[in-house]
Amino acid sequence: KSFLIEPLAANVFAAIAKPGSQATTNALFVVGKDYVVAAGAHMSQPVIEDLYKAIQARTRKPVRYFVLTHHHSGFTYVDFDFPPGQ
After folding, report:
1. What are phi and psi of 51, to 5 degrees?
2. Which residues contact 86 (CB under 8 A, 6 or more apart)?
3. Where are the alpha helices (DSSP H) in the chain?
4. Shortest CA distance to 52 belongs to which of 7, 19, 5, 11?
5. What stretch of H or E contains 54?
6. What's the Cα-to-Cα distance from 5 to each of 60, 69, 74, 80, rounded to whole Å?
7. Closest Cα partner for 7 from 78, 48, 59, 79?
8. SS3 (DSSP) at 64
9. Confidence band of 83 (pLDDT split at 50, 70, 90)
10. Other C-beta atoms lying within 10 Å of the C-beta of residue 45
11. 40 strand-pairing partners
12. Higher pLDDT residue, 14 or 25?
C-alpha cells in the first residue's frame, strides 16, 4: 500500500515510497538463506506494517535484522517495533 516493490537482484528488493502514500522514504530488504535483513528510516507505524506485509508476501523467513539508515530515532519507530508487534 505504501510501497512499490522493485526487484534489484536475486532476493534483493527496493521498496519505493508511492507518491501520495504515508511513506516518505524508500526502504530495502534482502532475503537471505535463513532470514531477511531490511533497511530504512523515517517510518510511521502504518508504513512499518506495510513494509512488513510486502516482505511477508515474498517470503515467510523472519526479519532478523533492521538497518536503521538515519543517525537518530527521532523520526522513526523501526528501531523498537520492527517487525510490528515483535
Report:
1. -65, -45
2. none
3. 45-56
4. 5
5. helix 45-56
6. 16, 19, 26, 24
7. 59
8. strand
9. low
10. 12
11. 68
12. 14
Give tens-digit pLDDT for 52-71.
999 999 999 999 988 888 76
Residue type at 47 in one-letter notation: V
Helix (H/G/I), strand (E/B), else coil: 45: helix
C-alpha cell at 43: 517510518
Q: Which amino acid is at 70?
A: H
Q: What is the pTM of this model?
A: 0.84
Segments making up each domain of the chain, as ranges: 3-75
11's grid cell = 532476493
How far apart, in whole angstroms, are the C-alpha atoms of residue 73 and residue 71?
A: 7
Is the separation of the CB atoms in 17 and 6 below 8 Å? no
Contact, 40 vs 12, CB < 8 A? no
Between 21 and 44, where is the model more confident? 21
Q: What mean pLDDT do residues 18-40 have?
A: 95
